[in-house]
Amino acid sequence: MTPCDDIKTAIEVQLDQNENLAIYILFDPAASESLPGELFLKEEQPNYHLLFMETELSKLVDASPYLVKVSPDSPFLKWCIEQAEAANNHLFPIIYLSSHSIENQLNHWRSLLKVNTPEGEAMLFRFADPRVLFAYLGASKPEQQQLLLGPVEALYIQAEANTWLNLNNVAGADFQLNPELTMPWLKLTDQQVDAFEIQAQLNLSWQIVQHLKEQHMDLVEEQTDHDLQEMTYKGLQKAAKYGLTDEVDLISFVVMMFVVAPNFAEQPAIKARLTDESIPEDERFEYMVESTTEEEWEAAVEAYDIEAWD
Question: 263-292 burial, b if ≥16 CB within 10 A, otherwise e?
Answer without folding.
Answer: bbbebebbbebbeeeebeeeebbeebeeeb
